[in-house]
Amino acid sequence: MTSHVSELIELLSLERLEDNLFRGQSRDIGTKYVFGGQVLGQALSAAQATLLDPRAAHSLHAYFLKAGDIDAPIVYQVDRTRDGGSFSVRRVTAIQHGQPIFFLAASFQKEEGGVEHQLSMSEVPKPEDIEPAPAVPPEVMATLPIKVQRWLTRQGPFEFRHVYPRDELNPPKRPPYQQVWFRLSEPVGDAPELHRALLAYASDFHLLGTATFPHGISYYQPNVQMASLDHTLWFHRPFRADEWLLYSIDSPSAQGSRGLARGQIYDRDGRLVASTAQEGLIRVVHKADATGTQG
């Protein structure tokens, strides 16, 4: 297993301090603060570790309260809210420096059958027919902030193939939707709990950014401030995070310095395996505002 994948598996494997208390570490992937998908995946891992019998997560709803400190551990406190005959509910609080930075509510269900339907997957090129994104030229990379350089040059655990690539450094205006194939870069074990935590981690990539498309802006621009405010994830059907999945994302609205994005995640056979929604902060500030010389 490569260091990037094993690092992520270790990141999601929390240290148990008490029955309902866990501790996780952070990894700097080039973001200014702790990556939201990391906290999401770790909180789900903590909740899953308190289940009394096999039950699969089917939904989670989270709020990001404060930016996370990359250099400090995160403590996850789990409240065993309910264990019913078919469903269990867990509430998780992520704490740093004595303050809550994140809340999660997750629901789990025993396996059972029922009626089924789903929206069909769009027809798109296969991932192997899409070229990986080209590297940023060295002369351009040298002009970027160090954090952005780390983000763009990282060799992460997930591989992404954009169906309709966009130049994030010089973003054009375009309709607010995109489709991205992604997968963990190498096979891992069969535990479904691990694959759900991995998908929770990956679901934070590319989601909110879709809301910037009509405005020709991106996270990499120094006058653009972006941060996740909440995140919702529903698991519909079994899947593997180490096999290609299609993330189909759209943004129906942006207003009040907030943008909304929605996603549907399909496997290669066209089965809808998960759905997401996220609202986030999107501020475009004047140079004087960004340097603090104006209110």
Automatic annotation (TrEMBL):
GO terms for biological process: acyl-CoA metabolic process; fatty acid catabolic process. Signal peptide: none annotated. Its EC number is 3.1.2.20. The keyword DNA-binding does not apply. Keywords: Hydrolase, Lipid metabolism. GO terms for cellular component: cytosol. Gene3D superfamilies: Acyl-CoA thioesterase, double hotdog domain. One of its GO terms (molecular function) is fatty acyl-CoA hydrolase activity. The keyword Repeat does not apply. It is an enzyme of class 3 (hydrolase). Residues 33-109 form the Acyl-CoA thioesterase-like N-terminal HotDog domain. It catalyses: a fatty acyl-CoA + H2O = a fatty acid + CoA + H(+). Residues 173-281 form the Acyl-CoA thioesterase 2 C-terminal domain. SUPFAM superfamilies: Thioesterase/thiol ester dehydrase-isomerase (SSF54637). Homotetramer. Belongs to the C/M/P thioester hydrolase family. This is Acyl-CoA thioesterase 2. It comes from Aerolutibacter ruishenii.
